[in-house]
Specification:
With about 260 residues, the protein is mostly helical. The chain has a domain at about 1-170. It has helices spanning about 1-20, 50-65, 75-90, 95-105, 115-135, 140-145, 160-165, 175-180, 185-195, 210-220, 225-240, 245-260. It is globular and about 60 Å long. The termini are far apart. The model is unreliable at about 15-50 (pLDDT under 50).
Length: about 260
């Protein structure tokens, strides 16, 4: 039993580490550009990455290993399936992602009421639904779900709880849906919520550097240059030790240089 549990934990940790650096972002069809010609969300399409494929490999291994293991919690199973589904969306495999959604939907009524896992799994399922909708261009449908979604606070620093609330690592799908419908102010409001840290809050979701980058581009598109500069600087500072070729980092540096030229 101990050997089985050890193997499961090892595989999960390898998968989580890999997926923590995967950009679970969904880029949908293009929308008319603002007069400035800036584009906040890339329209280049979704391309599979080596990291996403490695992450899938580890999660498939752990899923295959424990799927018949009687102590394997249904909440965990649903979360594993949702992660594989996010990878499907990332690689443009929408039919496969929809199949994952159906699998999770089947599990939801039977999830145990332990701790708050069932509530969090439902939230993750809804966010996964939104990602699929955005990928298919159903932005208003995604907004209809996301605008009423209430994220759970984590009462303690339970490692598993922290992992659960940070799946996926990027949780800005509502902001991206608003952007795609041309509602920039609402997109900005959502990003401002995501980048605001309240030390009294028990919201344990991480503030991803991409949030600073994406809201900076929105600020720039609105002509709010000082705010844009501030957010580009935050993004660059957080990612100061990141890979030099990271596209968002390269672009943030270029934009910041253009905005501060002559100052």
């Amino acid at each position: 039993m101990l050997k089985k549990i050890t193997k499961i934990i090892t595989l999960v940790l390898m998968a989580v580490f890999t997926l923590s650096i995967v950009h679970i972002s969904v880029y949908a069809a293009s929308v008319p550009s603002a007069p400035t010609g800036l584009s906040v969300v890339s329209n280049a399409g979704i391309k599979p990455t080596v990291r996403s494929l490695v992450g899938r490999e580890y999660f498939n291994k752990v899923y295959d290993y424990v799927k018949d293991f009687r102590d394997f919690n249904l909440n965990d199973k649903a979360m594993f399936v949702s992660i594989l589904g996010y990878l499907d969306v990332m690689q443009g495999k929408i039919d496969s992602a929809k199949a994952r959604l159906d699998e999770i939907k089947f599990l939801l009524p039977n999830l145990p009421e332990r701790y708050y896992w069932k509530e969090q799994t439902n939230i993750t399922y809804r966010m996964f639904q939104m990602e699929v909708m955005v990928a298919e261009g159903y932005y208003k449908n995604a907004i209809a779900i996301g605008k009423d979604l209430i994220f759970k606070e984590v009462p303690d620093m339970n490692p598993k709880a922290l992992w659960f609330v940070n799946i996926p690592s990027l949780q800005d799908v509502l902001a991206r849906a608003y952007f795609q419908t041309g509602e920039l102010d609402k997109a900005i409001t959502e990003y401002e919520k995501l980048i605001t840290f309240d030390q009294k809050s028990k919201d344990r979701r991480l503030i991803h550097p991409k949030y600073h980058y994406r809201i900076a581009k929105l600020y720039q598109e609105k002509g709010w240059i000082d705010k844009a500069i501030n957010e580009y600087e935050k993004c660059i500072e957080i990612w100061k030790d990141a890979d030099d070729g990271l596209p968002e980092l390269v672009d943030a540096k270029k934009r910041l240089a253009n905005l501060t030229k002559g100052n």
